[in-house]
Write a structure and sequence with these properties.
The protein has one helix at 79-82; strands at 3-10, 13-25, 31-45, 48-53, 59-67, 70-76, 92-95. Helices cover 4% and strands 57% of the residues. 19% of the residues are buried. It is built from 1 helix and 7 strands, in the order ββββββαβ. β5 and β6 (70-76) form a beta hairpin. It has one domain.
Length: 109
Amino acid sequence: MSDIQLQALGRGKIKVGLDLIYPHIDGQGNLTANIGQSEGTGNITGDEAVYSIKDFGSCSITIKFVRPGLIEVTQNGTDTDCGFGKNVTAAGTYKKVSSRRPKFGVVVQ
């Protein structure tokens, strides 16, 4: 299950942590997964936050705050541009699962 951690930092900034997974069956019929991870600071404007990843190409992650406890995420850039494994994407709808302060740098399983 993919996980996105967010923490408002104030002054229009947000800390973003991405732990993404793309599960699939390999050529021998075994369940395996490709992953993508990233962490950094983005900018908040209105009801959206944008986090850019520039280490591998041109990639930006846009987080739209739809309503309390629900975000819609779009990814501008390929899995390679973002430094993710094959077919891994941050795009999707995510529901809040915890009100605890995020622990960045910790892989969620």
